[in-house]
Amino acid sequence: MIYRDKNELQNECAKIIELDGNDVRILDEAKLKSGFIDDLIYTAVFSPDQATQETARWLIRRAGVALGIMSASIQPLYEAMGREELKGFTVPAINLRGITYDAAQAVFRAAIKGQVGPIIFEIARSEIDYTMQRPVEYTCAVTAAAIKTGYRGPVFLQGDHFQINAKKFAADAAKETQAVKNLIWEAIEAGFYNIDIDTSTLVDLTKTGVKEQQKTNYSLAAELTTMIRDLEPEGITVSVGGEIGEVGGKNSTVEELQAFMEGYLEELKKGGESLKGISKISVQTGTTHGGVPLADGSVAKVKIDFAVLEKLSSLARSRYGLAGAVQHGASTLPDEAFDRFPAMGTAEIHLATGFQNIIFDSYDFPKNLKERIYEHLKTDFKAEWKEKDTEEQFIYKTRKKGFGPFKLEMWHLPTEIREKVGAELEKQFSFLFEKLKMNSTREIIEKYIQQIDVHLELPASLK
């Protein structure tokens, strides 16, 4: 059910969630989980009335806190990895592009079964646009899924690839930088206490000397880090990630990591304060976001340079106290590759397209809906169809852009279909958690992560 009137929502809410000053108390947890949380999240995403939408979003976030579900920073855990107190596993960072509420439930179900500790839910700057999911909506969908499944504990929300567009930066550097700053502010307000800054698009390999090549990258990364430190809530140190090589480009080197870190740390000191820097570093090892589609629509096998990954992770920890290196573009790799990441000391791995493929390629996904999505892509994104690409290649590259325009229909697929697709996703999440050595790591969260309740202002509709 989607509430279109805040009074109607409040009347129904009164039986299950009670306002207590500027906060809430759960009166009937069973009813909240069995159905009302579904109504709240669908209202938070789809209600045409802004006041009703804001009310639903506030209720979801505060109900989560009342149940012990809070947004958190992974910083203390990554600092422990940097000290080598923790090792032997790789933290999965999962991008959910479509049917996010159902997909997040699949993540939590798999995590509960495996007693999995830290999992990051993330969304990139580009994904926010084409999936039509602003940060606060993403926060609410993940929090609602935690409530629905009975998960309790910290939720790690991350801004992935909060990236500077090189062409826009060249045209108007101040405007493009401000756009990323505005997004950072919006994300932190929404409870994203993990932010991956991506200024690697500004690395200029035509310049002489590695440090000069990395200069704009590390200087702007330091500027954005300083802003994050000004915005982070009291008691929380936002985990910030940096990047030295654009995914899909040439493989990263030890020299690039050293040049970036030296310049970055020098820039952070210029303000005269001792600011906390990044907690991890993203590198390029041979992958491409989404994989490389072949003429028949299948994905080409990718050879990852694990030696580079291991070397950069080790250096990041030993010299700079970082958690290690971060691997992007990994969800379409062959199954046998995943257990190598923890063995190589990889701190974090980003996974997205593989889950998108499970949704679209599921036997249970309605064929007529998929056909309509593909026709939409061929019409609205015709300009992106490269002359050398087959139709299968074009569809594979662009179908991620169908999640936004068809979000309402995909969220409203029959329950049976969403449950079957969710079961397929859950199976893959469980597989990945096992391969990444994440099972039975729940106690790590309890040891290193202190949950902090960040004040969330009561919406005007409830005052």
Structure explained in plain terms:
This protein is of the alpha/beta class and 463 residues long. It has 2 domains: 6-67, no CATH class; 73-359 and 416-448, TIM Barrel (Alpha-Beta Barrel), CATH 3.20.20. Helices cover 50% and strands 11% of the residues. The protein contains 19 helices and 11 strands. The protein has helices at 6-13, 29-46, 50-66, 75-82, 100-114, 125-130, 135-149, 166-171, 173-189, 210-231, 254-269, 306-320, 340-343, 353-361, 367-380, 391-398, 407-411, 415-435, 442-448; strands spanning 17-20, 23-26, 69-71, 91-95, 120-124, 153-163, 194-198, 239-243, 280-283, 325-327, 348-351. The strands form 2 sheets. Strands 4-5-6-7-8-9-10-11 form an 8-stranded parallel β-barrel, surrounded by 5 helices. Strand 10 (325-327), helix 13 (340-343) and strand 11 form a beta-alpha-beta unit. The longest helix has 22 residues, at 210-231. The radius of gyration is 22 Å and the shape is globular. 49% of the residues are buried.
